[in-house]
Specification:
This protein is of the alpha+beta class. The chain folds into two domains: 69 residues; 130 residues, Histidine kinase-like ATPase, C-terminal domain (Heat Shock Protein 90), CATH 3.30.565. 48% of the residues lie in helices and 21% in strands. It is built from six helices and seven strands, in the order ααβαββαββααββ. Strands 2-4-5-7-6 form a five-stranded mixed β-sheet, covered by helices on one side. It has a two-stranded antiparallel ribbon with strand order 1-3. The chain starts with 13 loop residues before the first helix and ends with a strand.
Length: 224
């Protein structure tokens, strides 16, 4: 007795067919999630505006916090349409140490005019991964440029690159100006954050009470 095998058209490329199925699955999921979230957000806004009567202050705060978190979920759902595909990334084997130095060259020249120095802490050995060279170079450039823009004159920018487990971590930090705001930096780095997410990574911005600014880029280490 033989088990029935799934029908497979002659000449079908399994990986290509699966990619198309995954794309359609993701598109349908994105549509359904977005529709439900937008409807929920609309009802929450109507409630906050007092469409059916005024709310007490505690309930207003709770609902406002829930609405803020819902808006973040809507933003994440919007990013599902940027699911990595063969068409969205030009993958190549690259040395991250060389890429970081190349990407920060132009920023260093501009920083020198304000007496800002760059301090590098990078591995001696090559750090090899797979990624879109041009896109990742843009990430490093935008991160370092943004940190320099928020750095005090005659200050220092530290570029720290390292491997941790199966991740690549890039820390770009400096003493920022007192008027620098975390939210402004996040808006400036929206494109870089999208590119990192496309590579399966993240970007985080941290501020301390001493006006120290740090941008952390985390990428998966993909062996060629």
């Amino acid at each position: 007795m033989t088990l029935l095998q799934p029908l497979r058209p002659t000449g079908t490329d399994d990986s290509s067919a699966l990619n198309r199925i995954q794309a359609m699955w993701l598109s349908n999921l994105n549509h359904d999630l977005r529709s439900s979230l937008l409807a929920t957000r609309g009802y929450m806004r109507m409630t906050l505006e007092g469409a059916d009567g005024a709310l007490t202050d505690p309930y207003r705060r709770y609902l406002a916090s829930a609405l803020e978190n819902l808006a973040h979920i809507v933003q994440l759902v919007e990013e599902l349409k940027d699911f990595p595909t063969h068409n969205s990334l030009d993958l190549d084997t690259l040395c991250v140490v060389d890429l970081v130095r190349e990407a920060t060259d132009g920023v260093r020249s501009a920083a020198m005019k304000r007496n800002i120095r760059f301090e590098y802490r990078v591995p001696d050995a090559p750090l090899i991964t797979v990624g879109d060279r041009a896109k990742l170079r843009e990430v490093v450039y935008e991160v370092s440029r943004t940190v320099v823009d928020f750095t005090v004159d005659a200050g220092a920018v530290e570029v720290h690159l390292r491997q941790e487990d199966k991740k690549i971590l890039l820390h770009v930090s400096a003493t920022s100006r007192p008027d620098a705001e975390d939210s402004t930096i996040l808006r400036d780095l929206s494109i870089a954050r999208g590119i990192c997410r496309l590579h399966g990574g993240t970007i985080d911005v941290r501020h301390t009470l001493k006006h120290s600014c740090e941008v952390i880029c985390e990428l998966p280490l993909v062996r060629p």
